[in-house]
Amino acid sequence: MNADANLSHGLTKDDPVLRARIEDFLYLEADLLDEWRIEEWFALFAEGATYEVPPTGDDKDADPATSLFYIADDYVRLRERVMRLTKKEAHSEFPRSQQRHMISNVRVTAMTAGVADVTCNFITYRAKRGVVDTYYGKHLYRIDCAASPWKIRSKRSVLGMDMLYPGKLTIII
């Protein structure tokens, strides 16, 4: 067991050390995406994890079984998405976009059995072919702090926008 796993035992959601470590973990995730190290980004996810981007609007609790999501990936589909994005055949991302992922207002909302429920605001900038797209909203995470190293069990990126232009996502926000 490493220091990350030991840290999760006995801590509460209000512990400032836990929040600081979670912030560092989320900054690492953002940096991996910015540097297009998406295989390493994928390694942050626990087997069985999910990555979702629900439809725009106010329903952050939408269910991918009953709503049309922009992205509703289980672990296998997420791995396939990462593999596809690294190939030249991924025309929407070849050459790849330049990106910057910004996060703020990190909050640990619950801590149960070593798993932290975390929210944070995000802004993701994507530049390609002279156009800069801005995506913003709130990430909802379940992070397994008892795992060694820590793993993301789920990530849901709830867009704060009323629509996407041009209506698709070709990057990982």
Summarize the structure.
The chain is α+β, with helices and mostly antiparallel strands and 173 residues long. Helices cover 24% and strands 37% of the residues.
Structural write-up:
With 173 residues, the protein is of the alpha+beta class. The chain has one domain (3-159): Nuclear Transport Factor 2, Chain: A. Helices cover 24% and strands 37% of the residues. The longest helix is centred in the N-terminal third of the chain and has 19 residues, at 16-34.
What descriptive keywords fit this protein?
single chain; 4 helices; alpha+beta; 6-stranded mixed beta sheet; disordered N terminus; 173 residues; 6 strands; Nuclear Transport Factor 2, Chain: A
Q: Beta fraction of the residues?
A: 35-45%
Strand arrangement within the widest β-sheet reads 2-1-6-5-4-3
Assign the CATH topology: Nuclear Transport Factor 2, Chain: A
Please tally the helical runs, counting DSSP H or I stretches of 4 or more residues: 4
Unreliable stretches: 1-7
- Main beta sheet: strand number and arrangement? 6 strands, mixed
The first-to-last residue Cα distance is 31 Å
According to DSSP, the number of beta strands is 6
Rg to the nearest angstrom?
Answer: 16 Å
CATH hierarchy class name: Alpha Beta
Topology at a glance:
Layout: H1 3-8, H2 16-34, H3 38-42, E1 45-53, E2 71-73, H4 75-85, E3 98-112, E4 115-128, E5 131-144, E6 151-159
